[in-house]
Design goal:
globular, alpha+beta, ten-stranded mixed sheet
C-alpha cells in the first residue's frame, strides 16, 4: 500500500521527516494547522488534498498545533491509530519542543523559568538568551506544558511580548516593521511509539526571521 507523501509534497513544502507512520512538515507561516470558520484552506486540508490526488489511501492527522503565524516543525500521523499513539506521548510529557523567539526589550537574566498559570492551569516555560540585540532579545524557548498561546502569553506577562505580536500587544510599539509574529518551532524530540528509537526533528530558521535579525543587527 502506497503511503509515502514526500515525493508529492516536497514540491510545495519542506519535508523534515517521514516514516511508515509519521510525517513532519516545516510549516510555513500564514497557514492554520486545522480548519477554522472563515479561513482559507488549512495545512492539514492542503496536504490531504495532495495525497488524494496521488492516490494515497491514508489521511494525515496533526499530532499537535502551531499558530497560523508560527513556522517550524509540525508532526502529522498517517491514520487515527498512529495519531492516538503519538498523542499519548504528548499527554505523558515525553515530547520535548524547542522554539526560537524574538522578544521585545532586554531580558534581565541569561536564562529563566516562567511559571504563571494560564486559564487556571499550571503553565511552565523555560528560556535561554541566545543573542542580545537593539530593542529585542533572541531566545530559545522550551515550554514544559502545552497551554494555548503559552509562549506568547508568558512573555507578554513578564513585560517582553514577542516581536510582531498583535493579539497581546501593539505591533506599533516595536520600532521595526516585521512581517509576522517572530516565533519558530525549531525542534521536536520524542520516543517513537512504534519503534525503539528516539526521534529528533529540526527545522532551520526561516528566511523571513533571518532577514529581520539582519536588519536589527545592522541597525
Amino acid at each position: 500500500m502506497k503511503t509515502e507523501f514526500s515525493p508529492i509534497l516536497s514540491v510545495r513544502f519542506r519535508i523534515l521527516y517521514e516514516d511508515e507512520w509519521y510525517l513532519a512538515i516545516d510549516k510555513p507561516p500564514g497557514l492554520l494547522t486545522i480548519p477554522a470558520p472563515g479561513n482559507k484552506k488549512s495545512l492539514t486540508e492542503l496536504l490531504n488534498m495532495e495525497g488524494e490526488r496521488a492516490g494515497i489511501p491514508v489521511k494525515l492527522h496533526p499530532c499537535h498545533r502551531l499558530d497560523g503565524e508560527t513556522s517550524g516543525v509540525l508532526l502529522f500521523a498517517k491514520g487515527k491509530k498512529a495519531q492516538q499513539l503519538m498523542m499519548e506521548r504528548f499527554h505523558e510529557k515525553k515530547v520535548h519542543k524547542l522554539y526560537i523567539a524574538l522578544v521585545q526589550g532586554g531580558l534581565e537574566k541569561e536564562e529563566g523559568l516562567i511559571t504563571r498559570a494560564l486559564e487556571g492551569k499550571p503553565a511552565i516555560t523555560r528560556y535561554r538568551v541566545l543573542e542580545r540585540l537593539p530593542f529585542c532579545t533572541l531566545v530559545e524557548v522550551e515550554p514544559e506544558t502545552g497551554r494555548t498561546n503559552q509562549i506568547r502569553l508568558h512573555f507578554k506577562g513578564i513585560g517582553h511580548p514577542l516581536v510582531g505580536e498583535t493579539r497581546y500587544a501593539f505591533r506599533k510599539d516595536f520600532p521595526l516593521a516585521v512581517p509576522r509574529l517572530m516565533l519558530h518551532a525549531k525542534e521536536l524530540t520524542f520516543p517513537h511509539p512504534l519503534i525503539a528509537e528516539e526521534i529528533t526533528i529540526q527545522a532551520p530558521l526561516p528566511a523571513d526571521m533571518g532577514r529581520v535579525l539582519e536588519r536589527v543587527r545592522n541597525g
